[in-house]
Design brief:
CATH architecture of the largest domain: Up-down Bundle
Shape: globular
Oligomer: single chain
Helix content: 55-70%
Radius of gyration: 24 Å
Number of helices: 21
CATH class of the largest domain: Mainly Alpha
Strand content: under 5%
CATH superfamily of the largest domain: Amino acid/polyamine transporter I
């Protein structure tokens, strides 16, 4: 039944599938050529206005969600969020990065690298948790930065989020094909179509496109059903990881752990900067606040609980590998498979491939879910057409936003190889994490330290954070390996600064 209009006439709800000008260009400046010319002549003023304008909590929580026309269904609990955390974070990275960094940089001390990265990641988790409890909306980092640092920073962040969504999904889908062929005991490119295109774009991957499409379809049908499927896949993945850990300890040789620091402390922290990316993906949990029954309770439990367990799992994996095989003998490209072969468990390589495959499946599922909610809120703010903000009345999911993720990602996954995609990811991820830390500094202390008598602490603290941010982002002009090292360490420093900043600033201001 439609609702009643002002004159007593029944007003039928608008169709979800519509393509009007108002859905793509709703602003007044696009209503006619005259208004467009007027707006164009005011570009400088408008840019200056948006450069310094900020949103607020009430607008993000109360007003913007109305632009989706329908509410997302509140169907998630802390239990669902913990499993979404597992699904979003635990992918193939733990199987790949552990072997590479143990062999190349850290040796048996790789476990300390995972501890350092885990602590750093947890500090970022605290930033996201604090924001998501106070601003429980689907926009995640975009909404938080729009409130604290303004529209311009939020606009840059939106571009990074879109880049991360498109490229990240495509990269995981391409990796899925590689591990699937490994499970079938075939060469990694055997299921790809060879063409005469430029190197790096000449191996078409229709399987990656199919996997992306299936994940997106499930995410569009129902958040609750996606959660159930994520449970199943994550349980299988965790069982495989548990088997790997137990089997590795059964075949452990403690003498393999000597020397423990073959590359010194420098190697430990170099490895920590790389394995930090195995903890990525937790930010997707914050985007599900609108679908969580009790955000103030469930999100902290889901985020902090899942990341705590994941850190323990990663550290156990990191200890087990060099105990099973001498770090100098580890194969950087297939560490666990070759290690199991060395102790007579050749068949275990199929379990490793299955675990990685299941991990990437859940990463795709939860990643699609989270990125679609980012896009929904970006569209609510009219930084992209508001058509992408619409929530379907029956499914309670943002179908249009999900399509915006899967179509470009599918095109990238079809044509682009992993080495082309991987170089684009790390900088955008670190940019968002570091800006989140700066935003939390502003949120905590801007009101407290905005008076003249307290300017010194605010100035010193935030200048320090901006210098660190500058240093990290300057690394985009350096080679890939250096970028990862600089970015990872800078991200850790900013996160630590955020969580210590109150004591520092109060001391300087005499509070």
């Amino acid at each position: 039944m439609g609702s009643m209009g002002v004159a007593g006439e029944e007003v039928q709800p608008r169709s979800y599938w519509r393509w009007s000008k108002q859905d793509f260009l709703p602003e007044e400046s696009f209503q006619s050529w005259s208004t467009y010319r007027t707006a164009l002549s005011q570009t400088g003023y408008r840019f200056k206005n948006r450069l310094i304008s900020r949103s607020d909590d009430n607008n993000e929580i109360g007003e913007l969600p109305k632009r989706s026309e329908n509410d997302m269904k509140r169907c998630l609990t802390w239990w669902d969020l913990i499993w979404f955390g597992f699904g979003s974070v635990i992918g193939a990275g733990i199987f790949v990065l552990t072997g590479q960094e143990t062999h190349d940089h850290a040796g048996p001390a790789i476990v300390l690298s995972y501890v350092a990265s885990g602590v750093s990641a947890m500090l970022s988790v605290f930033c996201y948790t604090e924001f998501s409890v106070e601003v429980p909306v689907a926009g995640g980092a975009f909404a938080y930065l729009r409130i604290e640092l303004g529209d311009f920073i939020a606009f840059i962040t939106a571009g990074n989020i879109l880049l991360e969504g498109f490229v990240g999904s495509a990269a995981v889908a391409r990796s899925w094909t590689s591990y699937f062929t490994s499970l079938l005991n075939r060469p990694s490119n055997s299921l790809r179509i060879h063409t005469n295109l430029t190197e790096g774009f000449n191996l078409l991957d229709p399987i990656a496109v199919a996997v992306l499409t299936i994940a997106a379809t499930i995410a569009m049908i129902s958040t609750r059903k996606t959660s159930y499927l994520n449970w199943i896949a994550s349980i299988v993945n965790n069982v495989v990881i548990l088997f790997v850990i137990i089997a590795a300890f059964i075949h452990a040789n403690p003498s393999n752990m000597k020397p423990f620091f073959p590359f010194g402390a420098k190697g430990v922290f170099q490895a920590a900067a790389i394995v930090y990316f195995a903890y990525g993906g937790f930010d997707n949990i914050a985007t599900m606040a609108e679908e969580t029954k009790n955000p103030s309770r469930d999100i902290p439990i889901g985020l902090i609980g899942s990341m705590s367990i994941i850190t323990v799992i990663y550290c156990l994996m990191a200890v087990s590998l060099p105990m099973m095989q001498k770090y100098t003998d580890i194969d950087p490209n297939a560490a666990y498979s070759v290690a199991f072969q060395s102790v007579g468990m050749t068949w275990a390589k199929y379990l490793v491939a299955l675990g990685a495959l299941k991990g990437m499946t859940t990463v795709l599922l939860v990643g699609t879910l989270g990125q679609a909610r980012y896009i929904t809120h970006i569209a609510r703010a009219h930084m992209i057409p508001p058509w992408f903000a619409l929530v379907h009345p029956k499914t309670g999911t943002p179908i249009n936003a999900t399509l915006l993720i899967v179509i470009p990602s599918g095109c990238l996954a079809l044509f682009s190889s992993l080495n082309v995609l991987a170089g684009l990811l790390s900088v955008s991820t670190l940019f968002i994490f570091m800006m989140m830390a700066v935003a939390l500094l502003v949120r905590r202390d801007f009101g407290l330290l905005g008076t003249k008598s307290q300017w010194l602490g605010w100035l010193c603290r935030d200048s320090s954070s901006l210098v660190l941010w500058d240093f990290g982002n300057g690394s985009i002009f350096t080679p890939t390996e250096v970028t990862k090292s600089l970015g990872g360490s800078t991200g850790s420093l900013v996160a630590i600064l955020v969580n210590c900043n109150k004591h520092f600033s109060y001391g300087l201001s005499g509070s």
